[in-house]
Bifunctional NAD(P)H-hydrate repair enzyme
Amino acid sequence: MRTAYTADQIRAAEHELMARLPEGTLMQRAASGLAAACAAMLGKVYGSRVTLLVGSGDNGGDALYAGALLARRGARVEAVLAGGRTHEAGLEAFLLAGGRTAGDGAAGAEAVERADLIVDGLVGIGASGPLREPYWGLARAANAAAAPTVAVDVPSGVDASSGRVEGAAVEAALTVTMGARKTGLLVDPGAALAGEVELVDIGLGPYLPDPDVVGLTGADVAALLPRPAAESDKYRRGVVGVVAGSDQYTGAAVLAVGGALLAGAGMVRYAGPGEPVAQVRAHWPEAVVTELERPSLDGVGRVQAWVVGPGLGTGDWAREMLAQVLASDVPVLVDADGLTLVARERDLLGREAPVLVTPHAGELSRLTGAGREEIEADRLRHARDAAADLGVTVLLKGSTTVVAEPDRPVRVNGTGTAWLATGGTGDVLSGVAGALLAQGLGCYDAGSCAAYLHGLAGRIASSGAPLHAAGVAAAVPAAIRELTSRSS
Ligand SMILES: NC(=O)C1=CN([C@@H]2O[C@H](COP(=O)(O)OP(=O)(O)OC[C@H]3O[C@@H](n4cnc5c(N)ncnc54)[C@H](O)[C@@H]3O)[C@@H](O)[C@H]2O)[C@@H](O)CC1
Ligand SMILES: Nc1ncnc2c1ncn2[C@@H]1O[C@H](COP(=O)(O)OP(=O)(O)O)[C@@H](O)[C@H]1O
Ligand SMILES: [K+]
């Protein structure tokens, strides 16, 4: 399990640890980890040109001490002093080691341009608001330079506690983060700007509280995934009911059923009108299909979880099917058109059994009234708020998928690829998550494991090239195989 913390959590832990150690110890630990990471990236330290972007706080102090270590190994290190003041002891050590300074004007810009490696020590967890000048300009100069940038603690311009970026931010090849991962390194847009993330142990572990955010690893998912045992049969493994698709949107039914079948459901029951029924029958002879003359679940059979919404439409038929599904006593996953209906009629969600909703930002916007862009900029907060407000588990889709449930750390998933941004992949995800619900996982585990598997299946299906949704469903078994073989 990867854990991450807000700036306030980190600061409180640092405070406790610092009280037990001689002054400056933590910064020395941070700087030596940072210098080692820079040296590894440079390959050959002696003679290389390193440019430090140094802000006014301790983030700049880390950069200066690391710069001193690199200078002692023969690197030509220049520091662009960007703040109104500079970490005094750090600067002294840096100058003593042979480092040189450049102003934040033309000389600084040249130092950035000619560097082999740039170290971003502008701001860390002490940042507030968008970068101010001259930091803003330096961040942009670093992004335009040929050399890679190593960010100290967080890329400057990324909010450490949310991943939010307002204005300019440094695009790092590597972020060397001190003591513990910051939430903003796991959540886009921050995660995308952080590059690789390397954690330097400064002894903070015992002082950290419960994490703000966690990310499942492959081993975590493998441990959570249900597997059939000798005494399994199709009913005991879990039956998924799918209410998706319409005469207009037949594909959604095929994709959701496919996702459920390939993610290990014991059986999939599909109920819908004539057109999607014909398509589901043609694609998935394994599914047990009921053709409906009217919107009713009578005679469809028992299931352990329902998936409702993809391609269902938003008319009276769809509304009635959704209401009947939600009136059941088993877990329900609501996606797509189901969410549009719930946005119109929130009372539908008032039920005892668990609900997992799987909106993208546009659908969440309909549910909560927040703007789509605002949601994408701060997905953690919006997913958390929606989970608390609606009393359900929220899986917010997008470049980082986040799963929020009241009173639990948000789970974030970054296994996906931008190639997944294509029609129908969300329908597959709903089927995969439905299969995990039917196999007995709770909404929180089912949502986060499904996001992981779906992202991995996307990577397998894509391999760097376009994918299509049916290909993602087809790759789900390979994703499961990869996880379980790695962890056995
Ligand atoms: N406290 C500790 O013991 C340790 C701190 N460490 C480092 O210290 C950092 C935190 O240091 P600080 O608390 O001094 O804070 P920072 O260095 O992150 O930033 C604070 C400074 O930046 C300025 N600033 C804030 N927002 C700005 C903006 N938007 N534009 C321009 N300037 C802005 C402030 O005026 C202040 O001078 C960590 O991120 C980490 O790099 C590490 O050395 C580990 C140990
Ligand atoms: N930029 C991206 N990077 C990674 N995954 C993405 C990105 N954009 C979308 N996705 C994923 O692709 C899927 C799209 O789902 P959705 O928006 O519901 O599409 P549809 O309704 O067409 O099926 C989600 O799983 C989402 O997390
Ligand atoms: K930084």
